[in-house]
């Protein structure tokens, strides 16, 4: 049997009109109703909003969590005999992975995501910029020598994201050659020590949520080693808001664990694009709507 990993996208994969084909599905309707009771607004309605509003962290993260969780639930039902061997999610996507692994239920996960999105949308210090084409060893050394900036996302060998103060990021960019730089539209320096205050406030809610032993091993962003241990998964999630997204290493771990197929469950195709660069021999599949879901159903 093919050894499969499921991955779940994070902020940046959203687009206006996503998930609208799910509106009439009974399971999705139930989840949308639950989500509206928790969020106080309609996920399907927000998914039809202009890109500017949908890209607001306050709305993006809950929408992605809800849609990815629904698609994962439907995929589990249709492929009961082909359950994934491993789960991983990019930043916000890690919450979907933990929900799918039954570490917490849909509602508990959404309450966490709602608060996470509120705190991150309120962050105002710092910024983020994606870099493509650079000398990794040189860049890493310069970042380590510069205060108030970190490598926040290590997506693949040729793409990383810096997070920190604008001054610190400018210092790094002035000292290294980069083929392309793309400023990210974010409210703050996510996945960096500048999120420490927000992370401390979020931890109060996280500590109140009971985590269960995972039914499927999960690779965390800050520690890309699979585990089912509830205390370890929670401790890693506590560190996630200020810690790095080590996605390249997650891909390398897929290689070491003999993963033959990676299915990206959720809007967009960002993660399969990243995985392709780290796992060139792995089959890649996207489940982003009902049509693609039905295409891989047995």
UniProtKB/TrEMBL annotation:
Keyword Coiled coil: no
SUPFAM superfamilies assigned: FabD/lysophospholipase-like (SSF52151), Probable ACP-binding domain of malonyl-CoA ACP transacylase (SSF55048)
InterPro entries the UniProt entry points to: Ac_transferase_dom_sf, Acyl_transferase_dom, Acyl_Trfase/lysoPLipase, Mal-CoA-ACP_Trans/PKS_FabD, Malonyl_CoA-ACP_transAc, Malonyl_CoA-ACP_transAc_FabD, Malonyl_transacylase_ACP-bd
Signal sequence extent: none
Catalytic EC class: transferase
Keyword Ligase: no
One Pfam family cited in the UniProt record for this chain: Acyl_transf_1
Keywords: Acyltransferase, Transferase
Enzyme Commission identifier(s): 2.3.1.39
Active site: 91, 191
Residues in Malonyl-CoA:ACP transacylase (MAT) domain copies: 7-290
The reaction(s) this protein catalyses: holo-[ACP] + malonyl-CoA = malonyl-[ACP] + CoA
Molecular functions (GO terms): [acyl-carrier-protein] S-malonyltransferase activity
Family statement: Belongs to the fabD family.
Name the UniProt record assigns to this protein: Malonyl CoA-acyl carrier protein transacylase
Taxonomic lineage from the root: Bacteria, Bacillati, Cyanobacteriota, Cyanophyceae, Oscillatoriophycideae
UniProt gene name: fabD
